[in-house]
């Protein structure tokens, strides 16, 4: 049965629906795989075999009872440990929430539960999704299945590693500045940041509210689309959720015809600072698109280079406020409550002990940027940059249907390599941040291995707000063409664990 | 040393400012579906959103936005075409998120005014802004002398109130009130309270905290061109306290300024028992609230057509209604003002609506019933008698079935819980004696007992008849119709008037 873990989510869903295999058997196969590789990969923060099998058996019962469930019924999924789950702890990889069990489900969790997906566990991340390597987890480091000495990207590194290591066919992540696309890129899988407002943030522990976007990870474009469709759509519990009909992403993934599509190559995202092997695969991917009938043009978006500094004012500002609720009063860690200290002292001691360095760094940055006398120069100015970037996207989309770039300037870097250099770490998100600031859709799809290190390279496909389907159409076209060239998925090349 | 009020006013001119918080009477809270019932057991009206559990999000209450716009329109404000909520960041245990969702530089309503009348003099109070925010939880500090957090042994928090919609109404500085400053402040809050009642947006009970007032006072020397430093007095929980707090601050500040001292810009607390204020936290060490636009909520953009509809559907406002009723009832300004001060207008209007002449309705409510209320320390509205019952009494008087003295006894019976006016008349046997045989028998007896007086009348001194009528009234225990008795006495003695 161990070949079950090599199947796509779509195939697993079909097998389960046909009664050829049970959800429990599929869950068990993945749990066994986890038992085997987790000691090396460490993608998960929380695994509970019994709860998972119980869920799987319940789905089997629902199917036997004739309940009409979606195409992913019985398929397992791993959740980034930033989505509230009522039957598993939810920590955001922070000590301040150690052991916290939410009394409610995030909308993403609830919708996938309703659709019959089985939760394999909660995956590791950079604490509160702040980081690009998953090294900022308060619990442990996660390893890249392609090379265990490398990071799996971040912040959703547990989710990318779990899918790349065949521990899970699907996983969820959140993308605030690239936290889905960059880990997908460096682990050789597909990761999608939906349009902001296209997927609900309710029950997602907030890092930066105006940027956070839940999205799917999968080993192929169609699986990502199926997962995307299963949890997205308007949610009355999230005011920023968009209540408008959207083109089907699953249909787009099934129809990879891009003849006549206009593809814009972002001029600013190449050149100095980019790894040669990354650029080589990227340029080949662009040629591939052209050979598939797309009209490729170069597009200049000069403000995109200012996105990174703007992001590092806006995201920390919002986080400084969002993380204020972790104050030891109602839940989570409480330090120093010995009957002699004031509430204020207990709050301060708890936050000092409960937050890691990167979280503290961003809270302080954000507090400073919002302070009276500095607001206009920092937060206010960053918002203006954000508007300019959105306008540049709009202007670009007057000329082209999608924009492309490398997902990240380099392949996976070594564990510990950038841990003491925040700026080097922040550069990993250089190409992904503009889409977060503009709120539009963007995907990373594998486009080969870099010659110098044999590690995966991702192609980023960006599309206008609510045109997520274009990412899937182009992504599926690239995937199809490359797979026929490679004779199978890129992950086949991954050293077996 | 404080300075006596008259002397303070001779030397200084006060400038007022009032910030009033009104808890809206919506069924659910501002940003979640929790109930808002007053007095529910602690922490029973809470949910993930109003407890600020990780991942929970706010959704704005449309009814609260509508109420706020109606308040703005009633206060002659302009309504913003587009505005946002903002986060006000500060740590306090009764504020679950450690930020309050409020409005900052984009209030929903702005630039309005309220007209009040004090001592027959019209005063226009300009409104700076009306904005919408959420209330905090309620802390109770246990142990310690002051009931405040400093010095308490421990504190307990009830989050039922956290998230109840709160409208803040801020006046522009009010100069030129002179010695009437306390009365103007009271008249303004009274008028606001009536406007809120007429709109039906809040129960505006100061004692339950659904109407709260912060009083700003500064003084400037009579010759000065610039306003002085102001203080903000909180904990002003009744209309009378508004008046007393202003007076007390004027006296206190005048004392300091006369001694060559300086006023510190600070928050002060009003004490109901002493009628004075004490220092709270100083504004100099005040926090930087780091306001920024709330990213979890979308902007409010009220449709101008809808705002026009709301404006057209506003109820008759209290000041307009008072003018109309005064004209209808033909009352003097002074009478109307007295009724207003006694909260009698609604009662008189209801009594008139039940069929009583306005003059009679006013006479009873402002005379006998006001005296009763005063004696028992209750308000007119709290007396156990209805406007319809008063109307019935006036009807009985008009028909000659009762005279004023008997009517007062009927009211006493109703107030004592003996039933309706008719039941009291019946039980106490209070009908005017209309049986002429009985009356003539009483008259004969009185004439026999008072032969001297009878002789005087007979000889033309008609004025002496008064004593005989008095005798008849005494003998009949007040039940005789005095006019008829006089007529019959004169007939019997053979004289005419």
Quick recap of the structure?
The complex is a heterodimer of chains A (497) and B (497). Helix content of chain A is 39%, strand content 12%.
User: What's the N-to-C terminus distance of chain B?
Assistant: 71 Å
Strand-pairing-aware structural class of chain B: alpha+beta
Overall geometry of chain A comes to: globular
**The biggest beta sheet of chain B, please?**
9 strands, mixed
Report the top-level CATH class of chain A.
Answer: Alpha Beta
Number of strands of chain B: 14
Radius of gyration of chain A: 21 Å
Provide an overview of this structure.
The complex is a heterodimer of chains A (497) and B (497). Chain A has helices spanning 9-17, 23-41, 49-64, 107-114, 157-164, 181-187, 221-231, 249-254, 276-291, 307-322, 343-354, 357-370, 376-399, 422-426, 433-438, 468-486, and strands spanning 44-46, 76-80, 118-123, 170-175, 190-193, 213-218, 262-266, 295-299, 402-406, 441-449, 456-463. Chain A is α/β, with parallel strands linked by helices. Chain A has one domain (2-268, 279-299, 396-492): Amidase signature (AS) domain (Amidase signature (AS) enzymes), CATH 3.90.1300. An 8-stranded mixed β-sheet of chain A has the order 4-6-5-10-11-9-7-8, sandwiched between helices. A 3-stranded mixed β-sheet of chain A has the order 1-3-2, with helices on both faces. In chain A, a hairpin with a 6-residue loop joins strand 10 (441-449) and strand 11. In chain B, helix 8 crosses helix 9 (358-366), helix 9 runs parallel beside helix 10 (368-376) and helix 12 packs across helix 13. Chain B is built from 17 helices and 14 strands. In chain B, 39% of the residues lie in helices and 19% in strands. Chain B has 3 domains: 5-310, no CATH class; 316-428, no CATH class; 436-492, Arc Repressor Mutant, subunit A (Orthogonal Bundle), CATH 1.10.10. With 497 residues, chain B is an alpha+beta fold. In chain B, strands 2-5-6-9-1-10-11-12-13 form a 9-stranded mixed β-sheet. In chain B, strands 4-3-14 form a 3-stranded antiparallel β-sheet, with no helix packed on it. The interface between A and B is large, with 45 and 30 residues.
